[in-house]
Amino acid sequence: MIRLEFALRRKPGMSRTEFQQYWREVHGPLVASHSTHLGIQRYVQLHTLDDPINDALAEARGGMEEPYDGVAELWWENLEALEAGATEAGRAAGAELLADEKNFIDLPRSPLWMAYEYPQVNPSEEMVAREHSPLIKLFFCLRQLPGRTLDDTQLYWRTNHGPLIRGVSTAMRMRRYLQVHYTAHPLEEALRAARGTETEPYYGHAEAWFHRSDLLDMERWPEAARAMELAVEDEAKFIDFKRSAMWVGKEKVFIDRR
What's phi and psi for 155, nearest 5 deg? Predict the structure, then answer.
């Protein structure tokens, strides 16, 4: 499947609570109502939590970009299904969604990109960090170090860092882990142009599910603390922390036709 990632910053003057309420109660149902015309197979909102874990994650990496207010995540079966949404009805649906996005999203500062999943720690059961679940989802959108190419960075991430995290995932009490790698597609440029997007896309993101208590108490367990140290040491070999962001959130699933 191919995914669209849309990292969102709220419009100036809105609180995060106001932003997330509008997104969940107004925009989410609107996207769902147009999902058939657009060929969307799955649509999930990741709502950022105001949680001390976010500061701890950034401090462990010497400081990072501010967390986004949320991420819209959409899945299509394949490229052909994605491109098939460019019908008259699909274009009309897209125009209506964009008009509503302007009511609550700071579009120039909200990057979007296309991506493919590379599962790393992937249990058979689906994991969703729902509102009343003990799970939280960690979202880590990445940019490469200066002088490194996109291809080189993604290769290292997939073939070096992925196996490292798989090896320490049990010590970290990690429940699930995906790498989601950026892929170039003409639709991205069209979507960015329509929104006046100024923030550059990330070369991908990592997402991992934890029980909040496990992530919060990780430093209390020597094996978990050491596993996190190893992960951060290796991240520094290919990630520009100052131009990357990491935070935790809760998921709201609007569509899942998989």
Answer: -65, -45
